[in-house]
Amino acid sequence: MAQNTSAVVVGAAIGALVGALVAGMGGFNFLKSSGGAGLTLGTSDITLVPVGPDCVLGKETLVEVKKGAAVSWNISNACPGDQTVTLGNIRTGLSSSATDCSQPTEGGTAWPFNGNDTNKRTATVKGTQDPVRPNTGKIKLTGAVNTGNTQVSYYFDVCQGGTKVDPRLVIDP
User: Fold this and answer.
1) pLDDT truncated to tens, each residue of the chain (173 aa)?
2) CA geometry: angle at 23 spanning 171 and 168, to 5°?
3) Domain that holds residue 114
4) Are residues 119 and 156 located together in one domain of the fold?
5) Into how many domains does the chain fold?
6) Same structural domain for residues 7 and 89?
7) Looking at residue 130, which CATH number applies to its domain?
8) Through-space distance between the first and last CA atoms of the chain, rounded to whole angstroms
9) Which spans in 79-157 are helix H?
10) Dihedral of alpha carbons 39, 41, 146, 173, sign
């Protein structure tokens, strides 16, 4: 009986430690949107927080969506100044030679959303003097494209103030 109690206590302690670590790192956002008739909108969060005199992006994000669905990145700005967030450099390989997000794709990769959405990949969110009540904005890209019968993965950059984070987009068949 003592062994079972010890295992439960150790398991609970490990679970609490992992939960605290994940929460302390800004969490891990996973998104999956359903496909078919009545596609649901998937969402992912981008958080901008003041760190000393700088305003920095939150952690990387894995986004998974069904083809034809929309993805919305909800942006929270708890910093005092206006912040512009841009998605760019969508590519099939992990590494990127880009230093900013001025290009929608990289390395000959086709844009994996509706063609007109290349103009919708940037949002500017006003700053706030009250970081407890951040201002919000949104980047919404529609019509995720996957012409094959297998899952397709893309890497992309989220840029703000010279900082790049490299999350990944997965489009299910």
Assistant:
1) 444 333 323 233 323 322 322 233 232 222 222 333 333 345 677 888 888 888 877 765 678 888 899 988 889 999 999 999 999 999 998 888 898 899 999 999 999 999 989 999 999 999 999 989 999 999 999 999 998 899 888 888 888 865 776 566 778 88
2) 20
3) 32-172
4) yes
5) 2
6) no
7) 2.60.40.10
8) 49
9) none
10) negative
